[in-house]
Amino acid sequence: MISRRSFGSAVALSTLVFAAGLRRPGHASEEPRRGGTLNAIIQPEPVSLTAAVLAAAPTGIVGGNIFDGLVKYDRDLKPQPELATRWEISPDSRTITFHLREGVTWHDGQPFTSADVAWSLENVWKPLNPRNPALFRNIARADTPDSHTVIFHLTEPSIALFSMLNGNGAQILPKHLYEGTNVLTNPYNLKPVGTGPFVFKEWVKGSHILLERNPHYWDVGKPYLDRIVFRVIPDGAARAATLEKGEIHYAPLSPIPLRDAERLAKLPTIKVGTEGYDWLTSWLYLDFNVNSEPFKDTRVRRAVAHAIDKDALIKVVWFGFGKAAVSPIPSSLKAFHNPDVPLYPFDPKRAEALLDEAGLKRGPDGIRFTITHDYLPYGEDYRRTGEFVKAALKRIGIEVTLRGQDTAAFTRRVYGDRDFQLASSWSSTFPDPQIGVTRLYTSEFVGRNIPWSNGSGFRNAETDAIFKAAATEPDPAKRIAAWKRFQVIAQTELPTLPLVELKFFNVYAAKLRNAVTRGDQIFGPLTEAWLDEPAKSQ
Amino acid sequence: MSAVGLIQRLAPGVRWARRLAQIAFIVIGIATVNFFLLHLAPGDAAEVMAGEAGAATPEFMAALREQFGLDQPLYIQFGKYLGNVLTLNLGYSFRQGLPVSRLILDRLPATALLMAASITFALVAGAALGFLAARRAGHLTDTIISVIALLFYATPVFWIGVVLIVIFSVWLDWLPVGGMATIEAGYQGTAYALDVGRHLVLPAVTLGLFHLAIYTRLTRASMLQIYGQDFVRTAVAKGVAPGRIAVRHVLRNALLPIVTMLGMQLGSILGGAILVETVFSWPGLGRLAFEALFQRDLNLLLGILLASSILVVVVNIAVDLAYGFLDPRVEIS
Lengths: 538, 333
Prior knowledge:
Chain A: One of its GO terms (biological process) is peptide transport. Chain A: InterPro entries: Peptide/Ni-bd, SBP_5, SBP_5_dom. The complex is a heterodimer of chains A (538) and B (333). Helices cover 26% and strands 19% of the residues of chain A. Chain A has 538 residues and is an alpha+beta fold. Chain A folds into three domains: 20-26 and 33-47 and 60-65 and 196-278 and 504-531, D-Maltodextrin-Binding Protein, domain 2, CATH 3.40.190.10; 71-185, Dipeptide-binding Protein, Domain 1 (Dipeptide-binding Protein, domain 1); 282-502, Dipeptide-binding Protein, domain 3 (Roll). In chain A, a hairpin with a 2-residue loop joins strand 6 and strand 7. In chain A, helix 7 packs antiparallel against helix 9 and helix 14 (461-472) runs antiparallel to helix 15. The longest helix of chain A has 18 residues, at 476-493. Chain B has 333 residues and is mostly helical. Chain B folds into two domains: 3-98; 110-326, MetI-like fold (Orthogonal Bundle), CATH 1.10.3720. In chain B, helix 12 (269-279) crosses helix 13 (285-294) and helix 13 (285-294) runs antiparallel to helix 14. Classes of the chains: A alpha+beta (538), B mainly alpha (333). At the A-B interface, strand 10, helix 5 and helix 11 of A face helix 3, helix 4, helix 6, helix 8 and helix 13 of B.
């Protein structure tokens, strides 16, 4: 899951024509041009530039240009060589051998070797990976027979591991700068030294982060850009104005409100696109608090599901941008998604019947009961989603009070104090549901004050067993079957109601080419990007 | 009366010592209230960071809390904080990985520049407009000025900011949208100063317009009040030129409330700056404080609040002293 506040203005853009790719047909054969400064927006300002210690989106976007991964993911989310040129998996799936690229140096000139990878595994990925550290703890040890070979010895087979080996999921830190220090407080987290196509130059807090081209990059001739300036622009209207004026070439993470995006997309100088987020795959949902009234009763949860017209929600609030979600695994994860689950079509009559059955009859004023709904405090779109839910539930006799708060108060309320009834949230699945979905349903995390993990309070022995078995299942087919079974249980018990498969967007200057060339582009480097007319040099 | 008399008999050194003790007492009081008030807010810095990461594990949260000192009981945290305050140590921002004093000093020049520019603009233009309105009281000029002042007074600052951006940056393309300098240009010396100046115009004007309206109204009102007094009538009767009366006799005497207002404007240095710094991406202290609040970076926020409370106290003393200078009838005790 990625930075939350930044998507406050995440919007839907039904009326926009999305560029299928940034390359226009007429330019397909053009040679990339070297040079120029790319002006980009980063918002909110990152806390750290090292994704290995903080997995927030702004960190990933800037740091993604400074670091490489063992692998990168192509548009089909298949691993492709990056720092590892090739790899072999043993027949028992318990040994993975990576052959590392030779002649790669860190930005300070030190050679990149297998020792950096082995050290990062033990000291960074295992203790600090926030998404799924078990993935890395399953690697019993890493051998380094020579300076360019790393062998991972796994306790149990792990298919999901191969979804987390890019520069964001498993960022390799320079051992010579981190060894013997506290990784969380190492000063290089703020001025990182990587192996990637761009070198960290300066960070003026509150203003900008400057990266310069790495002249010694292993992919000779690249990157094409001379430098990247990530500007911190906290106000949405000001972001739209800089884009309109042409001061900015690249603005990721749904940077502006929908109305502005719609207007700007009509300008010849600007393009809006949704590519590059495939690695994340995000979805919006409602969490019922299954430990308290009235959502203890499954029938009440199902009634709410029948009362919400997801297509109308997408049309009205998300401007047609997104897709109705029917299960906790979005349909874009084709192998894992199970469309054959209880569906809860929009049917207020059925909803009312379920509530009657649960003994929650309409009172003389037409109201069955009153609840409070805590909507995700990420801005306009989420508040409007809350208003939509309020209106939908009013129809079946449930009076809803909306409660606004800031993010810290929200996460404490839902994940710590569990003092809520109905909350909205969104989450990223990643290419393997083990990484992004387990957390939301496992009983292990209930009420432990861990943000964005099992908000509903769902405890189910069968799903817990599925998570455990699927994590170590070497047979992809059996694993997929287990995940499909999980979706049936999740949608039958319905602790969490999936609403929308979200899409986020980037705004680009039309003259920026090849800004998206990979499936994990949002957290990857702009190695291939180039400006059709180099920015005027001053 | 006897207390005042006693103070007046004391040596100036003792008076100042007493004053300093009062200041220290006030500052420590403010610091204590701030500490407990901010700790009432639900959630902590570790939760916020885990929230931004989008995922976390219990081990990661525990590591963060230990690093931030949040695993300690509140009274120990307060004891440490009070110790820091007494030694004028502003503490350490674990989120930013830097000492609070360093973070404040990094941002202070930007805010100071913005403040100086906007206060000068508001004061000079506001006093001039108020002076003009008072001299033409009841005429069309007065009406127009009063309406404009009312308009600036009533319009939200962020809205003015956005409108100015749209007009002067996007449509006319005269001025940059935001930021403090053209980063990629790498200007030096005079070129850099000019570049910063160009970036400064819109935020300074936006921030100044509200106070400009206040100064206009204050100057006009207090000048009109003084016009009604006997010594002005005497001056008129003596045949002093109207312009000289307005400047020497009326304006000078009308300055006291303006100085009061100036003190208050300086005191609200952070509050006013938050919106303008946000709209214009100005890397100043107001935004630092505002973001620290949402991030529950309490060390940083407490540090900024402490620094600004000291500033307010100091400005208040300066205003008191200025009263005595402007009007010898006011005694400083």
